[in-house]
Design goal:
Elements (H helix, E strand, L loop, with lengths): L10 H25 L1 H12 L4 H4 L19 H18 L10 E6 L2 E7 L16 H16 L2 E8 L12 H21 L6 E6 L18 E8 L9
Parallel strand pairs: 3-4
Antiparallel strand pairs: 1-2, 2-5, 3-5
């Protein structure tokens, strides 16, 4: 009696189905890359660092990404020109192009703008011995807030004080408290006028621990608020 041929099963069908599925997935991915480059970049970022797609993809979280070109093509010279213009706008808004005595100075350094606002006895930022802004201090914060919001700048606010002579070392601890309270008062004022809270990256008080270069620790110029402003795309990716 002739033996029946053995059946080899349907394994080839499974392999063929997997191949067809893979080709369909490839087609869909290629279509997405062509039609929605923003989403494509976000997907690529998620593969580089899957647990943190926002960090991996730069400014493109998987939820709420924008369509269209997203690559920043700004050159170093263009960025410097932009920062210089912002610095000039800050000076104009606070009427400080040629202040005497110096109440405010603006410096562009790398990709940041450093703004020192001095608490002078002639034009105090804060009421004496407190963290309450004077009308002048509030006016300065109002002008700064509009420039910062307009240019979508990230903000770091640092409070500084001068060293107090003839004061017990333990009493100097209060300088740390008032420096952070003043920095936070400036943050609140900036938000009150125009600044989106998500652009605030840091609020710090240094007491008298960080005097200006080439100045004694007790020099009045050390009574100041310092803002570090940095270009950022925070908040541009979740528009509805």
């Amino acid at each position: 009696m002739a033996k029946k041929e053995a059946h080899h099963g349907g394994a080839w069908k499974v392999a063929y189905a997997d191949f067809v599925t893979a080709m369909m997935a490839l087609f869909i991915v290629l279509w997405i890359c062509k039609e929605k480059p923003g989403l494509a970049q976000a997907i690529a970022g998620s593969f580089r660092l899957p647990l943190f797609p926002k960090m991996a993809g730069g400014d493109f979280p998987l939820a709420g990404v924008e369509e269209g070109p997203t690559e920043d093509t700004t050159t170093a010279d263009e960025l410097l020109d932009k920062l210089d213009q912002i610095a000039l706008d800050i000076q104009k808004l606070t009427n400080m192009e040629n202040p005497d005595p110096v109440l405010l100075d603006v410096e562009v350094s790398g990709d940041q703008i450093k703004v020192n606002i001095y608490d002078r006895s002639e034009k105090p930022l804060f009421e004496d011995g407190s963290a309450k802004l004077t009308p002048w201090g509030d006016f300065v914060m109002e002008g700064l807030s509009w420039v910062i919001e307009k240019n979508k700048l990230g903000v770091m606010v640092d409070g500084h004080t001068a060293f107090r002579k003839n004061v017990e070392p333990a009493a100097q601890v209060g300088l740390w408290e008032i420096s952070i309270q003043r920095a936070n008062a400036c943050r609140r004022s900036l938000i009150k006028y125009a600044l989106d809270p998500k652009y605030t990256f840091r609020v710090t008080g240094f007491g008298d621990a960080n005097p200006l270069p080439n100045l004694a620790k007790d020099d009045p110029s050390n009574e100041r608020i310092t803002l570090m402003l940095t270009p950022t795309k925070v908040g541009n990716t979740n528009k509805k």
